[in-house]
Amino acid sequence: MISAIKVLNSVTALGTDVSVGSDGIVNIASVETVDAYNVRGVSVTVPRTEVSGVVTVTPTAANNTVYTFYINAFSMTTGLPKVVNVSFTSAATADATTISNQARAIINADTDLSVIASGTSTIVLTAKATQPFFVVGGTTANVDSYSSAGATTIFTNLSAANGTAGRAVRGSVAYLQNKYAYSANGNALTQNELALLTSGFFYTEVVISYISTTPSGSGAFKGEISTLEAVVLVRANSDGSSSVFTTTNYADLLGSYGTITGLAAGYRVEGAALTSAITAGALNSTTQVQTVTGALSSVDVVGGDYLVSVSTPVISKVLGVLSSTTYVSSNTNPLTSGSTLNVFRWRNLPV
């Protein structure tokens, strides 16, 4: 069951929109707080545009011959599965074009079918928008519109191949509003937040699953454990690609060392060692303020992180963050200016 939905059209630095405190409490975009130990899973679905699947059926010409195949697709009116059987007898003087013409005429006569036929000497079947998947088959075999299958004989004198693999849209405004039951008359949980989705942009979908215990209620339900989901929708870009993100600080939240990545990894991120030279500022043993440039400056550091150098060693817990390169540290041994350190970072381990 969904407990909360949050739309982030901008992302704060250092991944603080979703954070795990040193006390082990996960703050989810200011709409939900969860004990980190109760988190059971984190899924991240990147946005992508829809691609209409294409299957090309190629006939081998034969005179006065029965050609038969089927298209298993959908009704554009109802969205329900729909099967169209294509069966005809070729002319006395047939060629690939006349045979294809006969097939296309039967298919395109059904305007409700989610597939349209084109081509000349072949039957090029293309999925219509919103329904990218279908299957073409005969008595011998079938070919779908999404698995990139090569030429396959589906019936005597008929072969089919998947020319363009279809894929469903993810992360568009319409997709998300439909998935999470957006309605102008809907409840406040979905309607108020989903109204904030920006038209023309795609969103990365983050779902944090966790368990919760019912604190009150009738005897039958008190103490019952429920699985809940907090959904965070992060605005990404306008073209649906997963490689280009226009949202500032996107990597802080969802990048390789971002908060969500750490949460999905069990609150611990072990990346490749950072080995470039580090110029360390003076460490004030009273306030324990540490300023670092170099390798660490490219990695977001948040309260609760542990920074571990395997060469000194230096183990430092981040007690608080002043900037992306300056933090309050539990370490009382200053880093040596100009030293080269192999630094791993542990993400927000609860004490």
Folded structure, characterized:
- The protein folds into three domains: 2-49 and 170-264, no CATH class; 54-164, Immunoglobulin-like (Sandwich); 279-346, no CATH class.
- It starts with a strand and ends in a 5-residue tail after the last strand.
- It has five helices and 22 strands.
- With 351 residues, the protein is mainly beta.
- The radius of gyration is 28 Å and the shape is elongated.
- A six-stranded antiparallel β-sheet has the order 17-18-21-20-19-22, with no helix packed on it. A five-stranded antiparallel β-sheet has the order 9-10-6-14-13.
Mean pLDDT across all residues, rounded? Answer: 82
What's the helix-strand series? EEEEEEEEHEEEEEEHHEEHHEEEEEE
Class of secondary structure makeup: mainly beta
Question: From the alpha-carbon coordinates, what is the Rg to the nearest angstrom?
Answer: 28 Å
Number of helix segments?
5
Largest sheet: 6 strands, antiparallel
| Distance between the amino and carboxyl termini | 30 Å
Write the SSE topology.
Layout: E1 2-8, E2 18-20, E3 25-28, E4 32-35, E5 39-45, E6 54-59, E7 66-74, E8 81-89, H1 96-109, E9 115-118, E10 123-127, E11 135-137, E12 142-144, E13 152-155, E14 158-164, H2 173-179, H3 188-194, E15 203-213, E16 225-235, H4 250-254, H5 259-264, E17 279-280, E18 289-293, E19 306-309, E20 314-321, E21 326-329, E22 343-346
Parallel strand pairs: 1-16
Antiparallel strand pairs: 2-3, 3-4, 5-15, 6-10, 6-14, 7-8, 7-11, 9-10, 11-12, 13-14, 15-16, 17-18, 18-21, 19-20, 19-22, 20-21
